[in-house]
Amino acid sequence: MHEMSIAMNIVDIAVQTAKANKAKKINSISVEIGALSGVVPEALEFCFEAATQNTMAQGSQLEIIFLKAEAHCQKCGTKFETDQFLNICPSCGEQVFASGGRKLQVKAINVD
Ligand SMILES: [Zn+2]
Questions:
Q1: What's the CA-to-centroid distance between 70 and ligand 1, angstroms?
Q2: What is the reported pTM?
Q3: DSSP assignment letter at 21
Q4: Which pLDDT does position 1 carry in this prediction?
């Protein structure tokens, strides 16, 4: 389960940012997760709680912003959003691979 290392990484970034801003406490952390990043939001939330123990982020909220991937059909030009890598074009039935959607980054943190 790689969500634990991701959660620790997120907490790390948030704590460093909070310290750089002389904050005392982290209230919430927003992360963007691409649909194709392979991260299971529920698992990440679970690991996040453990990762925040004994850090400035303890008790903080994890806000997950789930980003859809985009697929662009080469045959007919249709663009659509998806959360799967391999897709069937809704217009012509061609196989379409999604692009993007692998992002995983800390978008914002809220501190006191
Ligand atoms: Zn198509």
A1: 13
A2: 0.84
A3: T
A4: 57
